[in-house]
Structure formats: structure tokens, C-alpha cells
Amino acid sequence: MGKKNWIEFDNQQKKSEETAYEDNFNKRPKINISKQKKGKKGKTITLIKGLGTQDANLLKELLKKIKIFCGTGGTLIDSNIQLQGDMVSKSIEFLRKEGFHNL
After folding, report:
1. Strand pairing partners for 74?
2. Buried-most residue among 4, 5, 29, 65 (CB within 10 A)?
3. Pseudo-torsion of CA 60, 62, 68, 69, nearest 10°?
4. In angstroms, how far is the first alpha carbon of the chain from the final one?
5. From CA 41, how far away is CA 86, in angstroms rounded?
């Protein structure tokens, strides 16, 4: 039986991109998650520092996911994530699900 219209696909490029993405997040210092009262009228915010990457697109993607998970608003300032409210326990839970184990 001949291989008439047979095409072989090479998935090595996609696998290397995935491992590069994982290595980018795994090689970083300890992540600090703290609660602060700052800004307007002493409102509480959750501050996530030390994500270890300067790539704005990756940080924006992570911010979007964590805002949906926590059900709150947030912003990205100087490669640090700020969430509205006391979301320390929820953010720890989310980051562990995403594969961040250096909390």
C-alpha cells in the first residue's frame, strides 16, 4: 500500500516552544505575595512580586487568568501584579495550579 497523500508532521518546534515557556517561569527567585493598604481611602490590595520575567505579554496573560479566577480587578505595574481586595489565599491557590511552586 502506497503513501499517496501522506504528510509527516514535525512537532519538535512546538515542543521546544512549550519547554522554553516553562523554563522561563521555572528559573526565578521566590515569589512574594503580600496584602497592603494603599491608595484610595486605605483600600486593601494584594501585591504579587518576583514573577521573574519582564515579558509583558506573558504577564498580561497571567494577570487576565488570575483576575478571572479570583473574580476581582487588578493591574500590572512595574512587572508586579496588583489585585483589588484581600486575595492572598486565592492567588496562592491559583499560582500553584499554574505550576508556580516557589511561593
Report:
1. 83
2. 65
3. -160
4. 56
5. 15
